[in-house]
Amino acid sequence: MSWQPTLTWEYAQKRAQILQKIRQFFNERDVVEVETPALSQGTVTDVHLDAITCRYNFLNDSSTEQATNLYLQTSPEFHMKRLIASGYGCIFQIAKAFRHEEAGRFHNPEFTLLEWYRLGFDHFKLMKEVAELLKRVLGCAEPTQMTYQQLFIEWVSLDPLNATREQLLTLIKKHDKLSEWLTLEHDNDILLQFIFSELIEPHIGNESPCFVYNFPRSQASLAKISPEDTRVAQRFECYFQGVELVNGFNELTDVDLQLERFQEDNRQRESFSLKIKPIEKNFIAALTQGLPQCSGVALGIDRLIMLALKAEHIEQVISFPITRS
After folding, report:
1. Taking Cα atoms as reference points, which of 235, 218, 46, 295 lies closest to residue 226?
2. Which of 67, 75, 226, 308 has the fewest CB atoms within 10 Å, i.e. the most exposed one?
3. Paired residues of 146 in beta bridges
């Protein structure tokens, strides 16, 4: 194991310049930078996302002999929405986030996330602002927009909102990508995500960033349902040059509906023999108080810097990856 950083001094200076440019972007728009805890007593219930857990013995309502689980944040989302519910205005944060996932070309278990929330914005207005930031940092062409459904119909001639498991498996087999684990998979969302990543992503966002919006409602537990089509939610992602950069929502503000979605996540976890996660009660309390109309988005800083510097691996833009931490 080497003790030396994987981030060169040259790239460290360029990274700092990009971070400065991002802060200037928000300063011009009167969006205030905030800081929130990396540790939380609650965590996400998402079936496809796992937090890193640690133990703590000194909470006020627990014995020092009985450790409590704390969770490293997978994103600062819950804390930032609690700030907004308490009366804050438009805010952003550049924060460390942590996910219990395998490291790879575009992912390190500890990474840097830019997250911001805009009061009074819907997801379309926020997509426009994200596009402005990408053009500012990357010097890229004007991004395009397409719905999730349009992309499936265009590239694989299948409507994802009506497709059956059998149709999805037949499509995967037709493209010679069917493997045993897929034949045993009964969650259509997993199959849709596989098709999207393997058969659609390579075709989009190559010349300019591509915003994909109106994801199936089952893939967007924190977003409002579209009033035009209740099969989809007001969530968007952005892809550019093979990189998934952005995940955003027109934020769900209905506390009862949000609680039901978290509970449904845990029911799914139970059906998959996964550990049930504690629902973040402080976040639910904030929603009960009231969250104003807002849209929020998370952007992977390390991936953005990879694109800006034309780096091939995330290790080139972070100082010490997990293998050298």
Report:
1. 235
2. 67
3. 212
> Could you tell me if residue 4 is inside a domain?
no
Cβ atoms of 68 and 56 within 8 Å: the answer is yes
Residue at 51 is within a domain: yes
Query: Is the residue at 204 inside a domain?
Result: no
Question: Any bridge partners for residue 232, and if so which?
Answer: 216
| CATH number of the domain encompassing residue 23 | 3.30.930.10
DSSP 179: -
Output the tens digit of pLDDT for each of the chain's 325 residues: 699 999 999 999 999 999 999 999 999 999 999 999 999 999 999 988 999 999 998 887 666 678 888 999 999 999 999 999 999 999 999 999 999 999 999 999 999 999 999 999 999 999 999 999 999 999 999 999 999 999 999 999 999 999 999 999 999 999 999 999 999 998 899 999 999 999 999 999 999 999 999 999 999 988 999 999 999 999 999 999 999 999 999 999 999 999 999 999 999 899 888 899 988 999 999 999 999 999 999 999 999 999 999 999 999 999 999 999 9
Residues spanned by the domain of 99: 9-141+276-324
Q: How many domains does the chain have?
A: 1
